[in-house]
Design a protein that fits this description.
Helices cover 34% and strands 18% of the residues of chain A. Chain B is mainly beta and 144 residues long. In chain B, β6 and β7 form a beta hairpin. The chains are: A alpha+beta (403), B mainly beta (144). The structure holds zinc ion (ZN).
Chain lengths: 403, 144
Amino acid sequence: MTVSTAGRDWGVASACENVSGEVAVVGVGESDHSRASGRTSGEIAAQAVERALEDAGLAPSDIDGIMYAPFAGDQFDEAAFHRHFGTSHDMWVSKRGGGMVWAATAAHEAALAIRDGRARHVLNTFAVAWATRRSEMVGGPGESHAQELFKQSLEVPFGWFPQPVYFATIAKRHMYEFGTTQEQLGAVAVACRRHANLTPGAVMHGRALTLDAYMHSPVIVDPFRKEDCCLISDGGAAYIMSASDRAQDLRQPVVEVAGIGLGNSATGVHWAEQRAFTSTPQVFAAPGAFAMAGVEPADVDVLTLYDPFTIHAIMQIEDMGFCVKGEGGDFVEGGALDHDGGVLPYNTHGGLLSHAYVLGIAHVVEVVRQLRGEAAAQVPDARVGVYGGYTGPQASTLVLRRV
Amino acid sequence: MRPDFPLPDTDWEPTREYWAAAARGELAVPRCDSCGAYAWYPRETCEACGQSSFTWTMMSGRGRLFAWTIVHHAFLPQFSDAVPYVPGLVALDEDPAVRIVTRIVDCEPERLTFDLPVRVVFRPLSFPGIDRTVTAPFFTPDAQ
Ligand SMILES: [Zn+2]
């Protein structure tokens, strides 16, 4: 077996200012998650924001900072906010919010805005209506990839498209380099489903999955079964950040932002170019976040990861230092990811695989709920929780801590 | 999206020479005129030396199978006649960092192995309902 463990010359960490402990997540909310709902992403986001405000005990007029992602439909920007709530006050605005890596890094930018007095209460939202819009999108959520011209010229004509195909190829190479097995991929899918079965709002609530059923499920793109792949659903989430000293006076137990890191691959946005084909930029994101928080991977009580496919759990668990590179497959077996007794409770709401496809923002909401002690699949006495975000060329780590 | 999607736009400047070479039965990759490094995917500046002059260079067409998968489900309707098919990445012998996205043909998928020697063959890319075809580099196991 050829083990091509890549060196560390293929990417870099972004510089992040130390904002540890400065801000807290004071309110969280999720929309209803569903298959095609007929709603727009803006309507979905508004529902999540209303619930986050209620959770925080804040009024719409208290929100003077808003973060969103300027893609994926009509996002909930400041105009949409004012229209929905009938407000008109000035707001600090950032388009570097939303889900994926930004569900973590939004907390860094919000902390700086709050430190500088540009905002007091910052809202981050993300929502998609991709289940409703699926039929009009080329390759579903692959549409933005299909429009990338190098992919269109050099990859799509050969059928190396959309995402399930690239990531199955990466998974197969990971299996070759490190001996990762089909059962280990299945262990990730089963753990996520078990947690979704305990979570009333999860799209796959009530749909059980055993490892045996997984192994007998048809292969759609080797080695992936349907259960290795994220859902397509309509949904959204929101969270509100405030200065930690203000958070003491608000409604909820204080969950502070303890550490943030952002890692970048230097080798391009096309997976064929990636030097470290079976790694993620968590290699560069996680160490800085853990250092800022003053914690080690072993201190983490609950982990959520952006998980479009099962292999992303295994790769990021390795790359964040929860185990040695290549041993992620062994690590996830035997109930290790379970909320009740696992060594690393993982995606305790079900993740993108079984909870909802809202690109990671609901993962942050879940970590907050775990640290408050109010999650559906609650980890006993969770004090340190982590979200790992991923886009391919970038990854991010957010460490949250119960004060 | 273009009406002949998912055929490549062979006139798109950054990869025009790639498709023109394929039409002649050649596999070509840009090579830096200053330092000789291959640049794949095509890019504005050489990552090795920072210069920005390249010449499309004919390659041997031999390499190793770096990774592949077997696609059983047609994610795009244009591939419904093609499944199951085997897209893969070939690391070229001249520089294994150059990985060509391709399809592996003329081989039972079960017989493929990582790092298998492969060689280029040129075949028409065609899709149901699209009249035009484009000659493209596919790869097949290299009997040596
Ligand atoms: Zn050069």
